[in-house]
Write a structure and sequence with these properties.
Keywords: Cytoplasm, Methyltransferase, rRNA processing, S-adenosyl-L-methionine, Transferase. InterPro entries: Alpha/beta_knot_MTases, PUA-like_sf, RsmE, RsmE_MTase_dom, RsmE_PUA-like, tRNA_m1G_MTases_N. With about 250 residues, the chain is an alpha/beta fold. Strand 7, helix 3 and strand 8 form a beta-alpha-beta unit. Helix 2 packs parallel to helix 3. The protein is globular and about 60 Å long. The two termini are about 30 Å apart.
Length: about 250
């Protein structure tokens, strides 16, 4: 059953206002009266909804669904601005893997440079990708996307997290293979975790020092050095394995 995210709170009847959603529902999917879809509201609760009026784009809620597919912890993936369309790839895949947020910042060794206008346009595109990925993967929430204009703005957000972990290439080179596992071993349900990844050139020593001054811990992701767009997916998969497939988070 097709799923759509709807702004606002659930009520007995809902009228769809978003033009893109309307187009997909009634032009692409060709919904007609009595067809059913799943609508997800701001609280993340899914509802089966039946079309009652095609012209008014109006639905009647049939029943709430109990399924909840979010990770037991809230994971924010933060990447130094990468080249090409790698952020688009990450917006889709990190959403599918359960990230609550995708952030990107101008790292010391980022090759690309985006002004405020380009950042706004890029963020709008990434938000649409995240929305589509959340619908496809039947998420209860859409991953939030934020692109920071400066490192200072990015660093100012560290205090809102319970853990800040940096996937540091030097840790992997030195053979460190236990810090990530140990960090996941003492998390609690709904903890907020910030996972930081460098761009193609990695994280600079100055950046690493700034992160550590704010309480960040370095972790290795195994013996192999992964690409900038691969490491976040590995980390999210490891979190899912540790907290969803082997046991429930406390």
């Amino acid at each position: 059953m097709q799923q759509y995210f709807v702004k606002g709170q659930a009520s007995s009847e809902v009228t769809i206002r978003d033009k893109d959603t309307i187009k997909h529902m009634f032009q692409v999917m060709r919904l007609k009266e009595d067809d059913e879809v799943v609508l997800v509201f701001d609280d993340g609760v899914k509802h089966v909804a039946r079309v009652v009026d095609v012209l008014d784009c109006r639905f009647k809620l049939v029943k709430a669904l109990p399924d909840w597919v979010e990770l037991p912890v809230q994971v924010t993936i933060a990447c130094g601005f990468p080249k090409g369309d790698k952020l688009e790839f990450l917006a889709q895949k990190t959403t599918e893997l359960g990230a609550s947020q995708l952030w990107a910042f101008p790292a010391d060794w980022s090759v690309v440079k985006w002004d405020s206008k380009k950042l706004a346009k890029k963020a709008e595109k990434l938000e649409k990708i995240a929305l589509g990925a959340a619908e496809q993967s039947k998420r209860n929430h859409v991953s939030d996307v934020q692109l920071f204009a400066s490192q200072k703005d990015f660093l100012a957000r560290f205090e809102q997290f319970d853990k800040v972990l940096v996937a540091y290439e030097e840790s992997a080179k030195k053979g460190e293979q236990t810090a990530f596992v140990a960090s996941l071993g003492d998390v609690s349900k709904n903890d907020k975790i910030l996972l930081i990844f460098g761009p193609e050139g990695g994280i600079s020593p100055d950046e690493m020092a700034a992160f550590e001054r704010l309480g960040a811990k370095t972790v290795g992701l195994g013996p192999r050095i992964m690409r900038a767009e691969t490491a976040p997916l590995y980390a999210l998969s490891a979190i899912s394995y540790a907290l969803e497939l082997t046991h429930s988070s406390s």
